[in-house]
Amino acid sequence: MNVIVIACNGLHLGFLGPYGNAWIETPNLDRLASEGVVFDHHYPENLTTLPTRRSWWTGRYGFPDPDQGWTPLRPDEPILPDLLYDRGVRSALISDVPMLRQAGHGFGRGFDEVVWIRGQGYDPYIRADDPRASGVSIEDEPGLRLPPEDDPDRELWRLRWEQYLRNRAVLRLNSEENAGSGRAVRAAIDWLERSPRDASPFVLWLDLFSPHGPWDPPPADRDRYVSVEPDDFEAGEEGDLVEEDGEEQADDLFVEDVPVLIDVPPGPVGDELSEEELFRLRRTYAGAVTALDRQIGLLLDALGRLGRLDDTLVVFTSDQGEPLGEHGFVRRYRPWLYEELVHSPLIVRLPGGELGGRRHQAIVQTVDLLPTILSALGAGESPADLDRPPMHGRDLLELIRGRATKFRDFACMGMDVEEFALRTHYWHLIVPIEADPDDPPRRVELYRKPEDRWEQNDVAERHPDLIEHLELVLRRFVAAVERDDFSITLPLRELALFPPQA
């Protein structure tokens, strides 16, 4: 079979219909979920954008190693297209993610075809002297508010936003046809239309920048949810984002009058934006998700028209979530590994929709995608495999087809080698590793799952023995990654697998 991977950037799980959201319109992802297998427990191993793609394309853990983070790929580091080279499989990368295109990182290497869609976000594409962008000014865009004069990052954001406004003006980024990474999706459809049916199998990796900020969808999407009174914006005592005794009712009465912010620097709520602006920003983000869903629908329609839904494995996922105030800050302000950042979607549709409509509860991670792709292609072993390091991930088709019920009892992850986390079905442990001197003091945190979905109630003080054991499991796993030897690991005991008795 062929393989198409649709990878998004910064997609909040709580804003998707297949993962329980009842008020944001995602009909095309709902359709994909009904025809595919939805994994309810999917986590990255190393955040954020570039580290996740490294684990996708190598199938290996790297979060304890600073050289495996936001760093260029090594020339000798085997990645997905390298493993397809001598297997008779065509490979293509189509992406509008500006970070992947940055010179020297090497994330476009090895593919048979690469199509870069330039100009998303702060991509330095449209020059300041381009006459097509003459007259563009931050002062004329009410959705962008510069930090205060004494903020050391003020000039950085001025340059970024001026670049975005030039890109938007020339490329019409917030138009109906281009929003939600529409240009990249059209490029993918064009590639599929030019791909002969009788050619060798292919892997198409479609890497979409959406819904990463700036969140600037067409006006119809930007304002689509402004008058909606969703019940999952604020965290209640048990961690669900629910409305609390009318506390938000007053805010909903005037949120339509709150100015739209299409981008904000990472930072605490109250500094970068007010509570009212946060409520409005969440609605704008919801519109951006719907715009993305619409583009996914165009791609699925094209696959159906071309007959590719019958011979192609389709994977939909995201590199990370998006903090939107659940813990008092927006965007990736610090490497704090909470649910809204580390729980990411994963939907796998088999050709013909076989076994569609199922949900799987196994804990899976980004390292599992590469072995799944190779298994789907049925390409077997390659002579080059003898010289490459072993993959740490497992074939998700084993779970989907019932040949296995689980791969692991826990998921381990990290970000910037400053914070590690361990996630089981019942617990989420967060362990600070190296504190930033500008950060407030941090300590180990523990949250009960699944009832404390958005991790609002730290129960670390109530379970010191459990924390000791889980942290030991985590640190043993880190040691196994560092020596690339998982033959000796410390299993979770029953205390870690099951919640405490009431």
Word description of this protein:
This protein has 502 residues and is of the alpha/beta class. The chain has a domain at 2-120 and 173-226 and 256-408: Alkaline Phosphatase, subunit A, CATH 3.40.720.10. 28% of the residues lie in helices and 15% in strands. The protein has 14 helices and 15 strands. An eight-stranded mixed sheet has the order 5-4-6-1-8-10-2-11, with helices on both faces. Strands 3-12-13-14-15 form a five-stranded mixed sheet. A two-stranded antiparallel ribbon has the order 7-9. β4, α4 and β5 (113-116) form a beta-alpha-beta unit. The longest helix is centred in the middle third of the chain and has 31 residues, at 275-305. It is globular, with a radius of gyration of 22 Å. 49% of the residues are buried. Mean pLDDT is 90; it is low at 232-253.
Defining traits:
eight-stranded mixed sheet, 502 residues, Sulfatase, alpha/beta, single chain, 14 helices, Alkaline Phosphatase, subunit A, five-stranded mixed sheet, Sulfatase_N
Structural class designation = alpha/beta
Net shape = globular
Low-confidence stretches: 232-253
The average pLDDT is 90
Number of strands: 15
The level 1 CATH classification of the domain at 2-120 and 173-226 and 256-408 is Alpha Beta
Query: Main β-sheet, in a few words?
Result: 8 strands, mixed
What is the string of helix and strand elements?
EHEEHHEHEHHEHHEHEEHEEHHEEEEHH
At the fourth level of CATH, the homologous superfamily of the domain at 2-120 and 173-226 and 256-408 is Alkaline Phosphatase, subunit A
**Helical coverage, percent range:** 25-40%
Cα radius of gyration in angstroms: 22 Å
CATH architecture of the domain at 2-120 and 173-226 and 256-408: 3-Layer(aba) Sandwich
Strand content: 5-15%
Domain Sulfatase N-terminal: 2-378
Family: Belongs to the sulfatase family.
Organism: Tautonia sociabilis
GO molecular function, one term: arylsulfatase activity
